[in-house]
Amino acid sequence: MSEDKTLDRLAALDTNAVSDALDFLQLKGATYGLRPLWDCPKIVGRASTVKVGPKTDEAASAHPFTPVIDAVTTDDRVLIISGGLEGVSCWGDIIANASKAKGIRGTVIDGMCRDINGSREAGYPVYGRGVTMISGRSRIVQLASGTPVQMRGVTVCEGDYVISDACGTVFVPAGRIEDVLGLAERIDHRESLMIKDVQAGKPVSEVMHDAKFQAIHAETLSVAAASNASYSKQMTRKAEREDHELVKLFAGLDSPAVSDALDKLGISGQVFGILPLTNYNKVTVGPAFTVRYVPASDPPGSVGDFIDDVAPGDIVVIDNCGRTDCTVWGDIMTQYAGLRGIAGTVIDGVCRDVNLAIGEEYPLFTAGTGRWMRTGKDRVQVGGVNEAIGLGKVQVKPRDIVIADANGVVVVPRDRVSDVTEVARTIENSEASIREMINNGATIAEARKKLGYHTLQRRGQRALD
Questions:
Q1: Which residue positions form the known binding site for substrate?
Q2: Checking CA distances to 163, which of 36, 56, 208, 271 falls within 20 to 30 Å?
Q3: Which residues participate in substrate binding (predicted)?
Q4: Annotated binding site for Mg(2+)
């Protein structure tokens, strides 16, 4: 279906029908408190996401949103701004006029706006928490754009669908737009028939009888269940052939061998302070599926739906900023990960419900104390998925290769896997030769000297002198 037709179908609905469809499909998307800031028209379009935050230095910076506005090349965009400060404006009439001139359809702000009359005069729709006269200049800066953002507890990704009207704002994940539209149209049609019945003189007690509602509810649930089942089947991720090939290169290697190779090549990849939950006998290797947690918003957002998108063989790598006061992984996640064939989980933070993970030998690697019982629900939420994150002083990018065993965790940049595994095998072979010489009667000093043990991991040195 063409993009224009999809937007036309969405525009023919209201936020109530779309919200109801999301409910039946068990999807988050409806928000509370992001209302029209003047008597503006409905907005329907695709999200261009921007994250703002407090300005913490005196350095000069571009006005927030100007790079995003300048980069817009289509006429279907809606600016979605998260991270606004209470009582401080992050939107005004000049930027509204610039957006209007660019063909942007409107702005939804999890924050405040000022100069609202200027937006009204420009005919530019603005939705948000409220209005203020306090300037955001020198108070607010743009932190990111085009990345997932949190809007009143809902995760919104670049390109998701947006509908805002007098009742508020709803976001629809791009991958579910067809399911949501189909169900919302059925709901809207049903309600239209009920209104016609009332207008035709039928008793409202008959039109709105519980039995009739129950029948409609049951039918709608049936459609929603079918849509969810179809989507789950379509979205079951499969490991890519390239991932298999890269993982195979690590056969027979462990984290110390890879660590030595990283040292020799001058690559930072040894993850500090992340240790195995128990003394695993096997080495776990897989591509990184990265997840970043942030402190919970009000209302709080999701803590774990990302796992549906993880492919078999992946290792879930979670950046919870080393927090040990709340967990981001428990027995339900462990059970589901095991059923899905997920290779393991590495957390810069802690987990709970460890008995299942230990009993099932599911590889879990955690920071600090490693485990604690307090839930992360309403304390943290997913802030981003499949973006570069920090893990024990190492940057991890999506699909980098993770090697984890009883010794700890190392991360190899995806584009350096061949170099690292080649050097690791050379070092391993040299150390095997040293052990063989010792078994045949050589002293350790003789064996080490002959095979250049002291330079094996030294950067810029050949593996054998």
A1: 330-333, 352
A2: 208
A3: 330-333, 352
A4: 353
